[in-house]
Amino acid sequence: AGALVLRPGGVQVPMKMFKLGAIVTYGGGAIKTLTEAAGELREEGVEVHVRAATPSSELGWEGFLRWLVEEAHAFFLLGGNPEEYDGLLKTLSAGHKVVVTKEPGRSTVSPEHVAKLERYYKYGGKENLKNFILYLGKLAGFDFRPREPEEVPWQGIYHPELGTFEEPGTYRLKYERSLGLRPKVGLLFYRSYWLDGNLALVDALVRELEGRGIGVVPVFGQGKDKKLGSEALKLLGGAEVVVSLRSFFLVPRDPAREESPLSTLNVPALQGLKEYYKTELVQPKRGCYGARCDGRVCKILHDPEIPPPHHWIATYKWIQENSDVVVHVGTHGYLEFLPGKGVGLSEEDFPEISIGNKPHFYIYTVKNPMEGA
Question: Residues 6 or more apart from 203 whose CB is under 8 A from it?
Fold first, then answer.
């Protein structure tokens, strides 16, 4: 498939390959599926080339941006602040590229086209992303014939051996006949894991539990926190315990004030994340009144002269006595701001007093625009 482009002098030159560039600021797992979709289109004889990246991708950004300006026929920006990409969007628009972003007034195509492209992407799955590419190519002048967006299940039951089910009764019947087990443990994970084939963790947990004679019902669903769909929860019916592999808390930090979306199941719920044997804690407060903070007390947070309060020491002593390794996750906490040396710490320095002799891993989030790289 191809198209003709009019060059200066009125000469028509065939465009043999459609080139699409993308920057995806969240849900980066879809990049893998998008790339695979482009590969399948090439196998079907459609000449397309897709280059996609997230802000944290390790690539030669100068070369990538040059390619977008000089070679790409279309570009889409998913998420993020369009102001950060203002120069790029203006340059691509001036170069008569197909530019698509959700920000009103910044796309070079009509809102109707933007809405349709959003449906392709939101529904997800390889077939929708193949037609997403074809639709952008059509907008860029290529003789492509994309199909309409096709809805993909928003929730369902996935099993690494038995496949995907939308009806729990069908799954339980086949599961019990095939494995001789009754599903007792519900695993809850993101729909995007299923869409993008990011299922290694789910597969490993299912096989480990089944190897111990424990039946499993692995459920994927759309939404987060309290927005988790009730239909997804229905698929967990009958489970005696639920383990959530989602990064958002479905187990409330304050049960007296918050209600978990899992409460309707009336079963124990665990925030599993990525590990089996894990205790997840919120770092103790250090001089902060939260919503009542007046802006002065919070200065203690980063004051290297003030020792941490007793509840801080108590929490970290408990961690030392009940764990083999400590992992901090986030942009930053207060540990590194406690009194003591910055390097070559001794037993008299409060960061060392807090961690003790436990191995310590610090997973630092770099997407904070104030401190990110």
Answer: 160
Q: How many residues does the chain have?
A: 373
Paired strand residues for 154: none
The SS3 assignment for 313 reads helix
Percent composition of the chain: helix, strand, coil (DSSP 3-state, to 5): 35, 20, 45
* Sequence-distant (≥ 6) Cβ neighbours of residue 257 within 8 angstroms: none
| Rounded CA separation 251/266 (Å) | 12
Give, for 83, the enclosing helix (H) or strand (E): none
- Among 290, 193, 322, smallest CA distance to 245 is for 193
Q: Distances in Å between the alpha carbon of 345 and those of 279, 303, 349, 355?
A: 26, 18, 6, 11
Does this model's pTM top 0.70? no
Helix (H) or strand (E) holding 1: none
For the record, the structure tokens of 82 come out as: 């369009």
Residue with tokens 């790409």: 72
Q: List phi, psi (to 5°) of 49.
A: -140, 125
Of 87, 24, 83, 78, the closest CA to residue 56 belongs to: 24
pLDDT in tens, 78-94: 877 777 888 999 999 99
b/e map 136-172, b = 16+ CB within 10 Å: bbbbbbbebebeebeebbbbbbbbeeeeebeebeebb
pLDDT tens digits, residue range 317-369? 988 888 888 888 766 677 888 888 877 888 888 889 998 888 888 876 655 44
